[in-house]
Design a protein that fits this description.
single chain, 5-stranded parallel sheet, 13 helices, 45% helix, 6-stranded mixed sheet, alpha/beta
Length: 323
C-alpha cells in the first residue's frame, strides 16, 4: 500500500511538523522517517528536552530540526500573520498566547509555508487539531466543511483489500448537502490510495425499502450527486449488505450500478461511521488509517491517542501524500 507513496515522497523532500516532539512514539517515527529519507521532520518543543527524551528512548534525532514555540526567532512575524488571519476575533495578546501552544504554532508553520503538512494529536483531542486548522489553514475553495475519512486495509491471499469510510470522526449529523460534500471529498481521498471509487451512501433502507428522516436525507444526497457531472459512480440509499455483497445486491438492488461492488462508504452520521469502521478494524482484521482530514487548504491530520509508533510513521506518509 505504501510503496508508491514512499517512492514519490523520497523524490519530493516534503517537510512535516510533529507537534509533540518529546513523545516516544513521535520520536521513533520521526527518527525512522529521517533515516529512511522519506520526509523531513520538524519536532516542536524545547530542543534540550527533545534530545533528552530521544536519548532515553533510544531514537536518534541528530540532524532533525527542532523548534521551540516559546523561543522562536520569527515569533513577531508569525503573531502579526495570525492577527491578520483572526482579524476581529483574536487580538495580538490572544494570538501570542495561542502560539505558545504547539498545535497553533505548528499550524502557523504550515500556513506560512515553512512546512508542508502537520501531524498531531497523540496526546490531545481531535478538536484541538481541527480548531487551529479551521481557523488558520481554512477550508479549500469550494469546501464548506471539513470532514474525515478512514482507509481500511488488509492483506489477503488474493491481494490487498482497501476501502474508504466517512465521516467517522468530525461531523456528528451531517445534513443532505454536507453528505454530498463528504462523498465528493472521500472519493478524492480514495484515489490517493489507488482506490477507484464506487460510492455508496449508506442507510438502514435500500432504495425505498424503509422510511424515515435519515433515509430521506441519504436518498436526497444521493440524488444530488447523481445529477452532477462526476467521474465515478454513486448510489443510495443502500444498506451495507446490498452495497457490499453481489449476492444480496441482486435481490435488494438489481438495477444499481454499484450495489455489490462499493468500496467507498458514506455513513449517515458519526455514530454509524465510528462504530462501522471499528467493527471492520476489530472483527475484520483491517488496519484503519485515519482520521484523514478532508477539505482543508493543506494537509493537517490527527492521531489517535492510543496510536503506536508504526501508526505515526504510516500516518505521516499518508499526510504528506495528500499534498
Amino acid at each position: 500500500m505504501f510503496e508508491n507513496m514512499v517512492d514519490a515522497l523520497k523524490a519530493q523532500k516534503r517537510k512535516i511538523v510533529f507537534t509533540e516532539g518529546t513523545d516516544p512514539r513521535i520520536l521513533e517515527a520521526a527518527s525512522r522517517l529521517f533515516k529512511d529519507g522519506v520526509l523531513t521532520p520538524v519536532l516542536l518543543g524545547n530542543p534540550g528536552e527533545i534530545d533528552a527524551a530521544a536519548r532515553e528512548y533510544g531514537w536518534p534525532v541528530d540532524g532533525i530540526e527542532k523548534i521551540d514555540p516559546l523561543n522562536y526567532e520569527g515569533s513577531d512575524e508569525m503573531a502579526a500573520k495570525m492577527v491578520e488571519l483572526r482579524k476581529g476575533k483574536m487580538d495580538e495578546a490572544a494570538c501570542r498566547a495561542a502560539l505558545e501552544k504547539a498545535n497553533y504554532f505548528g499550524t502557523m508553520l504550515v500556513k506560512m509555508g515553512k512546512a508542508d503538512c502537520l501531524l498531531g494529536g497523540a496526546t490531545y483531542s481531535t478538536a484541538d487539531t481541527v480548531r487551529p486548522a479551521l481557523q488558520l489553514i481554512k477550508a479549500r475553495p469550494g469546501s464548506k466543511i471539513v470532514s474525515s475519512c478512514f482507509i481500511l486495509y488488509r492483506q489477503t491471499e488474493s491481494g490487498n483489500e482497501m476501502y474508504a469510510m466517512a465521516d467517522c470522526a468530525i461531523n456528528v449529523d451531517p445534513n443532505e448537502d454536507e453528505l454530498v460534500e463528504i462523498a465528493l471529498e472521500t472519493a478524492r481521498t480514495a484515489r490517493t490510495f489507488s482506490i477507484n471509487p464506487n460510492v455508496a451512501l449508506l442507510s438502514y433502507s435500500t432504495l425505498g425499502s424503509g422510511k424515515g428522516e435519515s433515509v430521506d436525507k441519504v436518498r436526497g444526497a444521493a440524488e444530488k450527486l447523481k445529477v452532477m457531472d462526476l467521474d465515478f459512480p454513486v448510489d443510495g440509499e443502500l444498506q451495507f449488505d446490498a452495497a457490499f455483497s453481489p449476492t444480496v445486491a441482486k435481490v435488494k438492488a438489481p438495477g444499481s450500478q454499484i450495489a455489490g461492488h462499493a468500496n467507498t462508504f458514506i455513513f449517515p452520521n458519526i455514530d454509524a461511521g465510528n462504530i462501522g469502521y471499528k467493527i471492520a478494524q476489530r472483527l475484520g482484521g483491517f488496519e484503519a488509517f485515519g482520521p484523514i482530514l478532508q477539505g482543508l487548504n493543506a494537509p493537517i491530520n490527527d492521531l489517535s491517542r492510543g496510536c503506536n509508533a508504526d501508526e505515526v510513521y504510516k500516518m505521516s506518509i499518508i499526510t504528506a501524500a495528500l499534498i
